[in-house]
Amino acid sequence: MARITASVYTSHVPAIGAALDLGKTGEPYWQKVFAGYEFSKTWMKENRPDVIFLVYNDHATAFSLELIPTFAIGTAAEFKPADEGWGPRPVPVVKGHPELASHIAQSVIQDDFDLTIVNKMDVDHGLTVPLSLVCGQVSEWPCPVIPFAVNVVQYPVPSGRRCFALGQAIRRAVESYDEPLKVQIWGTGGMSHQLQGARAGLINREWDNAFLDRLIADPAQLSQMPHIDYVREAGSEGIELVMWLIARGAMADVAGGAAPRVAHRFYHVPASNTAVGHLILEDA
After folding, report:
1. Catalytic residue (choose from 12, 97, 103, 193)
2. Are 127 and 62 in contact (CB under 8 A)?
3. 125 has catalytic annotation
4. CB of 213 within 8 A of CB of 268?
5. Is 193 among the residues known to form the active site?
6. Which pick of 11, 114, 193, 209 has the fewest CB atoms within 10 Å?
7. Per the residue annotation, which of 125, 227, 264, 268 is the catalytic one?
8. Superfamily assignment of 3-282 in CATH?
9. What predicted TM-score, i.e. pTM, was given to this entire model?
10. How many helices (H) and strands (E) does the chain have?
11. For residues 202 and 197, what is the distance between their CA atoms, to the nearest angstrom?
12. Is-contact 223 245, C-beta < 8 A?
């Protein structure tokens, strides 16, 4: 059977992608940000999965206010980098895994989660920036990727509790797939940031690090946090962190197994008015 071997968590700041693409990673402002991912790039080479299930949010490229799926799974054979207004990022086309994606959709929908099945879409920085950070600037991504888009842009958005339970359903789906695949599940977005309004530029270091502590040690309790706490403490865009709970819900300890091993933890501010968080958890 297939199995989830690790979960990876990272911010997906668009300016990070621009810094990579424009050769600015060595500039003083960006050096500390990218230094936090040097371990991860080595780790990825040593722990390359067969498939990455990548949870992210679309930023009005594949979807608009005309159509807002709460949860959408990409089942296509490939996904092109989106043009977000200044041309597509110069990164490889994302190769999908239609067989596993379709199996997960079947299993999760039968497990009473309503998913939107997407057979054609472009993927934006929410997905490609995490891949660039952990996989490096490559001519081809190291494995197929299943995009899983979550609406955290237009209210109402799913609760942390719902996302955590969805992660558990995704784990069950993966483990029922009849092929010995190693699967990583990634949760992206966050951490604290607000891009508009009177609190634009808000960053809450203490809250962010407490979130990381709780995500590692007590994710079930963390999943009960109401939306208003995310908005109050982490800014209007801090709600993206519910996507991390999908990845955390898919880990073995939540299903009664051993606690995961913390392979890497990193936090830095600022990166384009955003706090950058990063975590790698390995299943025992």
Report:
1. 193
2. no
3. yes
4. no
5. yes
6. 114
7. 125
8. LigB-like (3.40.830.10)
9. 0.97
10. 10, 10
11. 10
12. yes
